[in-house]
Amino acid sequence: MTLNVGVIGTGAIGQEHIGRLHGKLAGSAVVAVSDIDRDQAAAAAQRLCPGATVHRSGQDLVDDPRVEAVVVTSWGPSHEEFVLAAIAARKPVFCEKPLAVTAEACLRIVHAEIAAGRPLVQVGFMRRYDQGYRLLKDAVVSGTIGAPLLVHCAHRNASVPPHYTGDMGITDTFIHEIDVLRWLLDDDYVSAQVVKGRRTRHAPGTLEDPYMILLETRDGVRIDTEVFVNCRFGYDIQCQVVGEDGTASLPEPAAVAMRRDGQRSSAILMDWKLRFVDAYDVELQDWVDATAAGAMRGPSAWDGYFAAVTSDACVEAKRTGAIVPIVADGRPAFYDRQTPTGRRGP
Ligand code: NAP
């Protein structure tokens, strides 16, 4: 059986996901696309999923009777509209992060999903599907290093494009740590602080870069993360959990070790698309399989909401320098059937 998918947003990650869903993964085909730039959508369809209908709007795509499930990969501020449209049509929807650009908008999606009566929404937090993070979680859950006490992380990009401004270090970049660390520790956050230091001369415009984000969890675990998006040397994701009896670290991506000219070296990836390429495949295959089976088991709308609440607190902490409490709505019983923190698997 093939799941017929419609993709809204045919930019960078939209095209990547179309390529996965139409040809690379098993059990799915892209039968419709749309983008605010219709010519771009038509070109993407011709190249990646010939024969797919190119719709004038995301709503038209959702209304297309051939579309059984929707993937939203458009610009963040448009996510709420398209996710709500899919829920209203009772069609499962995979939405790239962020679920929506404000916590209030995420909550509207949560309430719409509850009103629909069954889980329909998955958010594209793909790190939960990364083999390295899964191994790290196994090490934490098994108790091998004892109770987690501290987590040290770094999220480094070689450079960022000109449109990367303002608080995107939090809302676009650190949002991945926000979700994956909550999943890793099976814990929620209670406060955030941002510590700014010396600014790199490589940061464009007035962008603040780098800075440290400190989170505290309900169980008292302290997390520090360096966000440094113009580090020059590559795309580098680090995570080390310090437990009562030892430490556990995220494995480095496989790379050939070379000896040459009196030096030992191995390459560092430069492109985020390559760092998590396998995780995207596993994530979307799992979504296709679950959706075809009438289930929904990845990161939920509640996870999207909690990430937005945390992200808002971090932005506020960066602006004020204060330690900002992270206060979320009470989790609706609808999400109780999932994990203690309201998260589904994977
Ligand atoms: P992008 O290259 O700018 O693509 C977004 C596309 O959506 C563009 O073609 C844009 O058209 C289109 N669009 C904007 N508003 C729209 C609307 N109202 N209706 C239909 N299409 C609309 O951005 P991207 O890098 O692919 O990112 C897309 C989303 O994926 C973002 O939310 C981003 O945070 C997320 N993302 C997630 C990951 C991950 O690791 N999980 C990685 C990358 C991106 P115009 O260019 O004409 O505005």
Structure description:
- The chain is α/β, with parallel strands linked by helices.
- The protein folds into two domains: 172 residues, 3-Layer(aba) Sandwich (Rossmann fold); 144 residues, Dihydrodipicolinate Reductase, domain 2 (2-Layer Sandwich).
- The chain contains ten helices and 15 strands.
- The strands form three sheets. The chain has a seven-stranded mixed beta sheet with strand order 12-11-7-10-9-8-15, with helices on one face. A six-stranded parallel beta sheet has the order 3-2-1-4-5-6, with helices on both faces. A two-stranded antiparallel ribbon has the order 13-14.
- The protein is globular.
- The structure holds NADP nicotinamide-adenine-dinucleotide phosphate.
- The site of NADP nicotinamide-adenine-dinucleotide phosphate has 23 residues, from helix 1.
Keywords:
346 residues; alpha/beta; Rossmann fold; Dihydrodipicolinate Reductase, domain 2; 2 domains; seven-stranded mixed beta sheet; globular; binds NADP nicotinamide-adenine-dinucleotide phosphate
Number of domains: 2
Query: Number of DSSP strands?
Result: 15
CATH architecture of the largest domain: 3-Layer(aba) Sandwich
Ligands (ions, cofactors included): NADP nicotinamide-adenine-dinucleotide phosphate
The largest β sheet comes out as: 7 strands, mixed
The amount of beta strand, in percent, is 15-25%
